[in-house]
Amino acid sequence: MAEQGVLPRWRIGAVSYLNSKPLLVDLPSLLPAAELRLDYPSRLADDLAAGRLDAALIPSIEFFRGTGYELVSDACVAARGPVFSVKLYSRVEPGAIRSLALDAGSRTSAALARILLAERYGVRPRLEPLEFGQSLEATAADAILVIGDRAMFPPSEPFVSTWDLGQEWFEWTGLPFVFAVWVARKGTDTSALAAAFSEARNRGERTLEAIAHREARLLGLPLATTIEYLTRNLHFRLGSAERSGLRWFRELAVRNGLAPVEPRRRPDEAHRLQPSEVAWGRSM
Questions:
Q1: Which CATH number does the domain 86-173 belong to among 3.40.120.10, 3.40.190.10, 3.40.50.1820, 3.40.50.2300?
Q2: What is the pLDDT of residues 117-162, one digit of tens each?
Q3: Which keywords fit this entry according to its UniProt record (predicted)?
Q4: β-pairing, 126-130 with 99-103?
């Protein structure tokens, strides 16, 4: 980390949830000239956009929305099936959802929930926030999106249906879903960032069980849950399949008005791609 009184070379933001711990192993020592801040995904996205951060692990939807952003690492937070920490709880059947409370920490999962409801059920509910620290019982919304560590604990209220959004996406598209990526602002010196982010991820992958043991104690979760979560629910490499999943997510976000059309494409072209047409291995 940057020494006290010395301006950091980079201001870096990372997610404070368990899902990001494997990406941060030894990062302060790998980037001693950096200042590392931990926060909720939505706040990191806002800080990066406002120039308060130079690089951050941000929600993938914000990578699409940002201007001049650069993807700087193949380290990411992704799932090929159930993710366990992104849940949509509903008090009614999915097709009857008219109001949706969105976790204030979420951007990508909020967009994904809206896309799944619109594309699969033709539902576009009224939105309201589920503020930080607000209980599920505090909102009367038909459905509630909860992300991060608190989504890993069972709710006290019985719900008509519960979606794991990672599973819903994978069953619908056959593609992995990428929740967060390392992104830098235009003009940032990224010469050392990519190597450091990848090396931190590599070290995290080698110590997943140790991370699971430590975080189980801190969070009050069963050890079997944290091990399963880090070793089976999540993976941390942005490969060709993950890029295809990102590309399709972007197409759907554009189609549903949740992300801007890429400058090089005409608006009508953003509606043509179907999941079966996504070519695995094509770069973004």
A1: 3.40.190.10
A2: 999 999 999 999 999 989 999 999 999 999 999 999 999 889 999 9
A3: Lyase, Menaquinone biosynthesis
A4: parallel
Residue 71 CA to residue 193 CA, distance in Å, equals: 11
64: tokens are 């699409």
Q: Would you list the domain boundaries of the chain? A: 10-78+178-238, 86-173, 245-277
Instruction: Give tens-digit pLDDT for 36-74.
Output: 999 999 999 999 999 999 999 999 999 999 988 999 999
What whole-number percentage of the chain has pLDDT above 70?
90
Q: How far apart are CA 180 and CA 154, in angstroms?
A: 24
Look at residue 191 in the predicted model and tell me its pLDDT: 85
**What confidence score (pLDDT) does residue 133 get?**
86
Give strand ranges (E) for 126-169. Answer: 126-130, 143-147, 161-164
Give yes or no for a contact between 184 and 95, defined as CB atoms under 8 angstroms apart: no
**Across the strands, what pairs with 127?**
100
Tokens matching residue 209? 């069980």
Whether CATH 3.40.190.10 fits 10-78+178-238 = yes
CB contact at 8 A, 251 and 175: no
Residue pair 219/212 in contact (Cβ under 8 Å)? The answer is no
Q: Please check whether the two domains, 10-78+178-238 and 86-173, share a CATH topology.
A: yes
User: Pick from 195, 179, 234: which is nearest to 212 by CA?
Assistant: 234
Contacts of 139 (CB under 8 A, 6+ apart): 101, 128, 130
Q: What is the CA radius of gyration of the chain?
A: 19
- 250: number of Cβ within 10 Å: 22
